[in-house]
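Title: Request for sanity check on ABC transporter substrate-binding protein prediction

Description:
We are preparing a figure and want to confirm that the structure record we downloaded matches what your pipeline produces today. Could someone re-run it with the sequence below and paste the raw structure tokens into this thread? We only need the token string, no images.
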Amino acid sequence: MGLALAAVAAGTQPAFADEVAICYNCPPEWADWGGQLKNIARDLKIDVPQDNKNSGQTLSQLLAEKDNPVADIAYYGVSFGIKAKEKGVVANYKPANFDKIPDGLKDRDGAWFAIHSGTIGLFVNTAALGDAPVPQSWADLLKPEYKGMVGYLDPSSAFVGYAGAVAINRAMGGTLDNFAPGIEFFKKLKENDPIVPKQTAYARVLSGEIPILIDYDFNAYRAKYKDQADVAFVIPSEGTVTVPYVMSLVKNGPHPENGKKVLDYVLSDAGQAHWANAFLRPVIASAMSPEAAAKFLPASDYARSQPVDYAKMAEVQAGFSERYLSEVR
């Protein structure tokens, strides 16, 4: 892997370059991409170097490299996939099992397609709370007892941050046409000294540095069941959103056939089962085993998650980011 990465960075390719596929935003600590990349190397003999970008950084890089692409495939939150198509940096490709992806979770031409989804909530290191109780609502995060304890990823850059903002805004009475309630919430939260990283903060929650992180269910379940950490996941009482993560084939990428093979793999039965066992909801529902489903919160909790118009969510994202940067940060 080291040789392949060095060669790519230097603009040259080693003799085994046809066994490489470059993915933007395949971070090993997120959604168990680390395990999936090992599976791909084992089963496809294709090396996919780990990459720690977030969704916004991925799209920015694709745009910067539009005339000379470096990546073959990209992974990002759905709104960024929609934008990538609009900007003309991705190619149409319908991978294996494309027809099994529900309508609304794929571009009809294959410019982007969901591979799994997560539900936004509170990823809580209960051991790091001290005497404070586990928060049960968005409103709880504004209480003085959680001062300096709450973290969220930068919503102007990271998709999980934006998805959290959409959830909070709606819970506070806002809509995708009116982010004022959400902006007001973040202004109040700023007074509680939140921690605002740009990339996945999984390790910082486990260490107790960030006791409460606005994040996806799958990260909390991974901490609980894989790392045996003293954590809880809470779906706030006011409600939340479930959002898909999607992938695309990059337009004119250097290794398109390998990129296609990787996309086929993540939507294969084996690839989808891996996501389910990593506590994500696979886009092909039949891949979720009863054993995996049993580790999620009860369906009654997930009933507090309502669908969102993903196309509209993408359309208004830039406007929200501008307001967040000018009024909150």
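Thanks, this matches our download. Strands lie at 23-24, 73-77, 90-91, 113-125, 150-152, 212-216, 231-234, 240-250, 281-282, 305-306.
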